[in-house]
Design brief:
The complex is a heterodimer of chains A (about 325) and B (about 280). By secondary structure, chain A is mainly α. Chain A has a domain at about 100-310: MetI-like (MetI-like fold, Orthogonal Bundle), CATH 1.10.3720.10. Chain A has helices at about 1-5, 10-15, 25-45, 55-80, 95-105, 110-140, 145-155, 165-170, 175-200, 205-210, 215-255, 265-275, 275-310. By secondary structure, chain B is of the alpha/beta class. Chain B folds into two domains: about 30-100 and about 185-275, P-loop containing nucleotide triphosphate hydrolases (Rossmann fold); about 105-175, no CATH class. In chain B, helix 6 (about 130-140) crosses helix 7. Classes of the chains: A mainly alpha (about 325), B alpha/beta (about 280).
């Protein structure tokens, strides 16, 4: 700044020759160059570079702790088995559970069973998405609708969806419709509530800015409101998937019929009927793995991306 | 940033304007006209009048600052002109179409890059897809942010964000730019630089500016005309034409001199409120 002072002391700056309103000639160009340089310096000083975290550190910090936890649980389980706290038909060893799953694998049915459930869960989730999104928007944006069904919608979230199974069976019999009805009743409230929460947290300033640039009505919803509400919406989707999967298992466990085919829920029930504890534990393990797998492979990366794009993930 | 193309070549930066809007403005002879504008908030019985009988013309291409202490309703006045709120009484005419508005916070959309923020404004204006990218790059160059197209909002400094916000406001191609204390949250050096940028961009684009601030020196540094508002309710207390030629600096003796005079007047206005 010292150079600036000598070049243009305040006294001379106040009265440039000619009194021209707009800068011209060499003087103007010098000013422009000086300003550009100053600005570039400010920009450089103020911008933070973000270093990428090395892979080895990511593995050490993110992958190691859960791996250790799993090993510890398995070790506890194995020692409980070795101490014979319970007879082995009630408390099998990890290896026995593994063998039960391997046996199902060699029968060649297990992939079909998993697929039956996953495809139902996915289809139910997608239908829930299509129903819940406009519903959530209506509740969030239309006062009357919010007053009318807002509390019911958030109340429904605390109703275990297994409670719907008897009603669904009476309505639809032992059909796929029963299962999908239960999945929808479980997932729709969480997705809709997530969207409502997301919309509620949208900064009013962004809505005003949208209005100023002419994003009003449906264009405002599409270009401002929905993207602004995306973080809440994505966490609603995540929870919606968890609820879909849970509800599906409850429905499959209770609604059993040859026409419905065999999903993971039915496999669990088969294990109970035959008092086959290794199979029961194996089925539980599979249900858990599918739930966690889809969360880790699909929803966690989606959420991370949304947050990172907005600079909300930086300092973690 | 070596490219100061727009600073040296005003022709390249002259924006294509929607012809009929400009015609309307030329016919009207003003960029904005406020006639007896009043605004009250609250329920009947407990009404609070914020603005009282404001009449003000902004000429095409003019730079006007609205100056006032807090509570004088200057932000409300901008919201009225921006059509975000409606006046209780009086009329507001903006012949050049929907005015652009810059806020104290950058108000950029964090889910879009800097360039995409500008493109959204272009899209809302109806600029065809094929032209948007180039136009956004041109506007970024105009505010000297060449190369910032793909930057996320959180990766930019406060001053850079406000420059992107300025570019987005210019993308609306409005004849009238409303600014609501846009530099109040910036540090002094950055603010100085942005004053120079704004003066330059204003000279190049011939846009009319209505700029709200509580900072007297800023008002004098930027404006051709300073309008002082009294508080509660806001009325026009006095006006000054600023004859000091651009480029000015905030530390110039003439800027200081006029600032001292206006500050005295502003203090007088504020003191009046302590008397009853």
């Amino acid at each position: 700044m010292a150079g600036t002072e000598t070049e243009r002391p305040p006294e001379s700056g106040a009265s440039p020759a000619g009194g021209a309103q707009k800068r011209d000639g060499a003087q103007g160009r010098d000013d422009a160059a000086e300003l550009a340089g100053l600005e570039a310096g400010l920009d450089a000083l103020d911008t933070r570079a973000q270093a990428r975290i090395p892979l080895a550190r990511t593995l050490r910090e993110k992958a190691l702790p859960p791996a250790v936890a799993v090993v510890l649980v398995l070790a506890l389980w194995q020692s409980a088995f070795a101490l014979e706290l319970k007879p082995d038909y009630q408390l099998p060893s990890p290896l026995m559970v593994w063998d039960a799953l391997a046996e199902e694998w060699y029968k060649g049915t297990i992939l079909g069973v998993v697929w039956q459930s996953v495809s139902r869960g996915a289809l139910g989730f997608l239908v829930a998405l299509v129903v819940a999104t406009p519903l959530g928007l209506l509740v969030a944006r239309v006062k009357v609708v919010r007053a009318a069904i807002g509390p019911v919608l958030s109340g429904l979230q605390s109703l275990p969806s297994v409670a719907w199974v008897p009603a669904a069976i009476i309505w639809f019999g032992l059909t796929d419709a029963t299962i999908y009805a239960v999945v929808l009743l479980g997932a729709v409230p969480s997705i809709a509530n997530g969207l409502v929460a997301g919309v509620d947290r949208v900064q009013p300033l962004h809505l005003r800015a949208g209005k100023v640039i002419g994003a009003t009505g449906l264009r405002g919803v599409r270009h401002v409101l929905l993207p602004a509400a995306l973080p809440g919406y994505v966490s609603g989707l995540k929870q919606g998937w968890a609820f879909s999967w849970r509800s599906l298992m409850a429905a499959e466990l209770i609604a059993i019929s040859p026409e419905l085919g065999v999903g993971l829920g039915q496999l669990l029930e088969t294990g109970r009927v035959y008092q086959d504890m290794p199979l029961v534990l194996g089925a539980i393990l599979l249900i858990l793995l599918v739930g966690i797998g889809i969360e880790l492979l699909l929803f966690a990366p989606m959420e991370r991306r949304v947050l990172r794009n907005r600079g909300l993930l930086a300092a973690r | 940033m070596p490219t100061t193309l727009s600073a040296q070549d005003p022709e390249a930066a002259a924006r294509p304007r929607a012809g009929d809007q400009q015609d309307r403005q030329r016919q009207a002879g003003y960029a904005a006209q406020l006639d007896g504008v009043s605004k009250s908030f609250g329920r009947p019985g407990a009404r609070q009048q914020v603005l009282d009988g404001i009449s003000l013309d902004v000429a095409p291409g003019e730079f006007v600052t609205l100056l006032g202490a807090s509570g004088c309703g200057k932000s409300t006045l901008l919201n009225l002109v921006a059509d975000l709120e409606s006046p209780t009484e009086g009329t507001i005419d903006v012949p050049g179409g929907r005015p652009a508005l810059m806020f104290q916070e950058h108000a950029l959309f964090p889910w879009l890059t800097a360039g995409r923020n500008i493109e959204l404004a272009l899209r809302m204006r109806g600029v065809p897809k094929a032209e948007r990218r180039q136009e956004a790059e041109r506007l970024l160059t105009l505010v000297r942010l060449t190369g910032a197209y793909g930057k996320r909002v959180h990766e930019l400094s406060g001053g850079m964000r406000q420059r992107v916000a300025l570019a987005r406001a210019l993308a609306q191609d409005s004849q009238l730019l409303l600014m609501d204390e846009p530099f109040a949250a910036l540090d002094a050096i950055t603010r100085d630089v942005l004053h120079e940028e704004l003066t330059r961009v204003w000279a190049e684009t011939e846009v009319s500016v209505l700029f709200v601030t509580h900072n007297v020196r800023e008002a004098v540094r930027l404006a051709e005309r300073v309008v002082l508002l009294s508080s509660r309710p806001g009325r026009i207390a006095r006006e000054w034409r600023v004859g000091i030629p651009q480029p000015r600096r905030i530390e110039d003796a003439e800027v200081s001199g006029l600032s001292v005079e206006i500050t005295e007047e502003l203090r007088g206005e504020i003191r009046r409120h302590g008397r009853h």
